[in-house]
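If you are new to this repository, start here. Below is one unmodified record pulled from the training split, so you can see the exact layout before writing a loader.
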Amino acid sequence: MILRNARSLDVSSAHVIVTGGSSGIGLATARLLAERGAKVSLIARGRDRLEAAATELSASARAADVADQAALTLAITELEEEQGQPCDILVTSAGLARPGHFLELSDEVFREMIEVDYFGTLHALRAVVPGMVERGRGSVVAVSSAAGLIGIFGYSAYGPAKFAVRGLMESIRAELTPRGVHVGVVFPPDVDTPQLAEENQWKPEETRAVGGTIKPLTAEKVAAAIMAGIDRRRFVICPDTGTRALARFGSVLMPLLNREFDRRVRSIAKAATGA
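And here is the target side for that same chain:
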């Protein structure tokens, strides 16, 4: 193993690839990177929004499903060739959230969450990390979730996939940091994005109750936290005080949180039965 001194990347000369870059957190992050002068490449499934985002940012783009390793790897290779530069910074923002009751969700939903949220992250990392290690520099940032810090009612399919992203990044951090590659993982709560709007169509009432009346963050706030994490080579990236406390003290707070969550779930059950 070759040990290298950690050093921040010059974003203004970096080639950045953002998966899920056509909307939400991915697009907001790509905007900030473009403003800093980075060469930006976007990957997403939906062609119309992807083309619109690419035009706005003067970015390169490829349509690909991150769950399809061959298609994603080809897209990354083509973007590196088009930009004339290997990937220096990778932000994996592509993901799906499908809440629901455990007993009512289909097996396909569980499988899809793992394939998109976990394997979609893994496939992108496998495509760019070897080159970063060879060059002795780079940054990889994966978007997990507050649901990757604590189990939440209604997220039995989504939560485990985001826990897996967290575990993956914790594991590779130990391997890649000595080789000069920054590793970061982001734990946003609810964020006001098209994905949240889709997710809200499926949320059980108990999940809404557990979440309380917390206002979703803007994608721009999360993007700013990601940029600060890249600049300062942070591993844990939390865009708000709530997830920051959860990341630091989750094991201590969990009994108290579970007690409060259970109380809120019981209140929904009582309201439903009129008890």
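Two things worth knowing about this chain: The first helix runs from residue 24 to 35. Residues 24 and 213 are 21 Å apart (CA to CA).
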